[in-house]
Amino acid sequence: MAIEFTKYHGLGNDFILIDNRSSSLPVLTPEQAIKLCDRHFGIGADGVIFALPGENGTDYTMRIFNSDGSEPEMCGNGIRCLAGFLADLEGLGTWGDEGDKENNPCPITYRIHTLAGVITPQLISDGQVKVDMGLPRLLAGEIPTTLAPDEEKVISLPLEVAGQTWDVTCVSMGNPHCITFVEDVAAIELETIGPKFEHHPVFPQRINTEFIQVVRRDYLKMRVWERGAGITLACGTGACASLVAGVLTGKCDRIATIELPGGPLQIEWSKVDQRVYMTGPAERVFTGKL
Ligand code: ZDP
Questions:
Q1: What is d(CA 163, CA 134) in angstroms, rounded to the nearest whole number?
Q2: pLDDT tens digit sequence for 164-218
């Protein structure tokens, strides 16, 4: 049976989206996802995302396989793409069309069940999606890391990686992140250092690794080594986690632009409800059949 897919990207973090609304199990295996993500022998993507029926009263469920076949709890850029894809499936294809105000049904809000809880993306306009990413989790036990006792936060602690001591802060956005502030992100040898963070024994579920350069209190530059995907052009959960880490360490404001290799994201850690809000684009690239 042919399976249709749509390729989407959020700032160059690219995904294969699958309409999985008629079954609560993904129609592809992790092994098939690995093959499809291959950039030479497959379609090419950082991950495969499935739009499944909602659970616990939500509109839909999102599941995702990384390009190595592992399954993360959440995916920030991916959930923006999923929101755009759902609007496509529901025939709300003009959601991004600012010029066509009459037929533009925005804002459209979806409540999405994920392994990180209920996440709420809202299609606002012009291809932009604002996502309520929920509460950041800060305790070592919930990240998880053994860098500190389970009930303590992991703010600015020393971590030995590749013969160097790094000053790290850890935040979970449902998935785990380790953030290091540096003078110059361009100088980081991500390809060699990234995997050493990812597989460090203090991170039992492995880790997504972000390096952040504070340009101004409201403007950060980020490079990322993702768990299960390696270097990517953007990471939404990573940008959220990094802003939270910047606030915790007193380095940035609660609202900031995070510049990723693939482009900028707007992130806010709300003082009012303590939730993190991410705004950025989701773009359809093409559709096809397997
Ligand atoms: O936690 C992980 O294993 C990540 N690789 C998941 C993907 C995160 C993503 N890049 C994001 O934008 O949050 C999709």
A1: 36
A2: 999 999 999 999 999 999 999 999 999 999 999 999 999 999 999 999 999 999 9
pTM exceeds 0.90 for this model = yes
Q: Which residues pair with 222 in a beta bridge?
A: 212
Q: Which domains does the chain have, with CATH numbers?
A: 4-133+282-289 (3.10.310.10), 140-274 (3.10.310.10)
Q: Is 178 a catalytic residue?
A: no
**Structure-token pair, residue 53:** 């029926």
User: Closest Cα partner for 226 from 12, 36, 30?
Assistant: 12
DSSP secondary structure string, 237-267?
Answer: HHHHHHHHHHHHTTSS-SEEEEEETTEEEEE
Q: How far is CA 251 from CA 205, 218, 243, 264, 285, in A?
A: 27, 9, 9, 19, 37
For 251, which DSSP code?
S
172 in ligand 1 pocket by Cβ < 6 Å? no
CB of 16 closer than 8 Å to CB of 5: yes
Q: Is 236 in the pocket of ligand 1 (CB under 6 A)?
A: yes
First to last CA, the chain: 9
Cα separation, 74 vs 55, whole angstroms:
16
Residue 194 in contact with ligand 1 by CB distance below 6 A: no
